[in-house]
Specification:
20% helix; two-stranded antiparallel sheet; alpha+beta; two-stranded antiparallel ribbon; 65 residues
């Protein structure tokens, strides 16, 4: 996903809502998005890539009602 695509998607959401990030694709744990971002380049295309990480990790049953 490109940054501009993410920005469009986020602009459609409630601006006062919390955004969580999943620790893995199975949804085993969730947390706030860390404020730091890692930067690199994709091997195949050389495009710049940013990685975001959770700053905390909680089980869904502990985080959500």
């Amino acid at each position: 996903m490109k940054v501009k695509e993410l920005m469009i998607m986020l602009c459609e959401l409630d601006m006062n809502a919390v955004i969580d990030i999943a620790q893995d694709e199975e949804g085993n744990a969730f947390g706030d998005i860390a404020t730091s971002v890692s930067e690199g380049k994709l091997k195949r295309s050389g495009e710049k890539v940013y990685s975001i990480y959770p700053s905390s990790s909680e089980m869904p049953e502990e985080r959500y009602t």
